Here is the input.
Amino acid sequence: MVKIRAARPGEAEELGTLVLRSKAYWGYDAEFLASCAPELRIRAGEVAERRIVVAEDADGGRVLGLASLEGGPPVARLGLLFVEPEAIGRGVGRRLYRHALRRAAGLGVRRLLIDADPHAAGFYRAMGALGSPRPGAAGATGAEEEPPAGLVRFEVVPAPLAAWAQAWTGGGPAVHLGNVAEYNAQFGDASLDPGQRAGRHYACLAPFYSPSPGALVLPGAAPPGWIRRLARLLEWEGVEVYDGLAQGGPGLPPDAGLSDAVRARPALAGRLGGAGLPLVPWGLTAGFARLSGRPWRPRELRYESKSAAHGLFGRILAGGGHPRILLPGQWPAPTRRAAARLLAARAAAGRVTVLKSEHGVGGSGTTVVGPERVRAAGGARALLRTLPRGPLLVEEYVAGPADPREPRDVTYDGFVDGAGRVHEVGGAVMDVAGAGYRGATVGPGVVPAWALGPLLAFGEAVGRELSAAGYRGWFDVDFVADGSGRLAPTETNLRLTGPSIAFMVAARLDALRGAGHFVRIADRVELGARLPGAALDDLCEVLERGCAELGAVFLPAIPTAAFDPAPWLGVLVAAHSGEALDAAEALVRAEALAVGAAFARGQRTEAPSLSPASSKSNGEGGVRVT
Here is the structure.
């Protein structure tokens, strides 16, 4: 282990010699090093002024590296960052760099300049620093200056953890409970997967329920190495994994929810509850209330119903103050005959209709029907026979923008804290095909300026109503744009969502690598063939390296679906520009299909053998990732 501490004036000479040893590591000759010595010298009287810190071996106390943070705010410089040659590659430089970035953010530094040795340029790119946007960037004094000859200029925008993320879990680690299937099952909607297999896959999003997981509780077995890869890329430490709990436990039925499966293991429940960390689920359930000891008020979730949410939207709009929000008409149809009459009348009038179940996930239970489709099916009643059973809502269709480049589906994310305060997280653009959700993108300027204000204002108004109704937790409000500068709210989700996962990752990466990340979650990257576990690991390694070369970050988000007969992979990609983000997604999709094609040709077709990542088969134990 390495610990960081402030340098002492009496160490100045020793640190100066360390700097020269580190510089010599790159093969510079004695004459060049002698010419650098005056500039690299550290004087005792400037140790504090230059904010020099050292990294030392926590066991022996030996100094392994140093860094300085000079000038500012608002503009500062990473003046020194040098590591003992034998410690290079052991993570010392990374620790020093992240420490400097956190200190800069705490000081209010807006731009951190780095003039790097060419041999170190790859390190700074890997850390997320960006090449300077112009030849002369403002130095610590504010004057325009060229980087010193022979050095490579980088910049980074230091950022603390977002205020909303601080409020969500207190800024520290949390226990994440992947109870997706448990949450979905409580609604009993015909459009939801009866076996909740998809819910088990989506529980793999549990690592991202907050920016810093302390423990993960998963219903299924996690692929070996998956969490370790995430922990390395997002620089998590000490994550405990408890998986393979979906089979229930003593005295529980096989289909018991994840929360009750944890309660059936007293040692595990005690360990999680006694850790002193917030317990964060995908969504609220009766089982989670029993596990966490919070009161269970089923009516908290009443606005998960699409008709109840529509009524809530109408009441908010009746109060005025949201001129750019429109509410599409919606008519309950308690029977299929009533739905058929409404649909037939709208089709005869040439109108497109949205048919919705009361509950659904990712667009399940939602169908867009035009007059042509009604005719092709042989009439409204014949078409309805192809849809899931149960009551339907008939809703007015809102036509979207004429320009396909304009976002059509946008969403607001926020949460209500334990005291009832509403916290704004932000807006995202969703990728929706037909009525099916496929992913979302968050980042600076992703939601057009004309839409952002109305979206945030209406989302906050919904949050206030949810708070008044007693709801506590994450929520989103989904909208469609109508092409005339207006937004139509379509539903609320009283749980975490795909966009919320992207926001969590953006908050973590902004704090680690500098502000301004774009993050995209792509729910289904098709593979085309079932992959063995080793092949999935190899694919993730290729995608990680390829995205890094584009200046992007690749994160495998839903790996277990790669082992299904119809295989797919959920992924996250992040970058500091929209262009790099698009390139990274294109790379991921192309490489995934190429690997799938290779296996489809019969190179290897055996199914993987997954053992739980936990140390006991019943999920009682845990594996600590460092």
User: Anything to note?
Assistant: Residues 58 and 385 are 68 Å apart (CA to CA). The chain is about 35% helix and 25% strand.
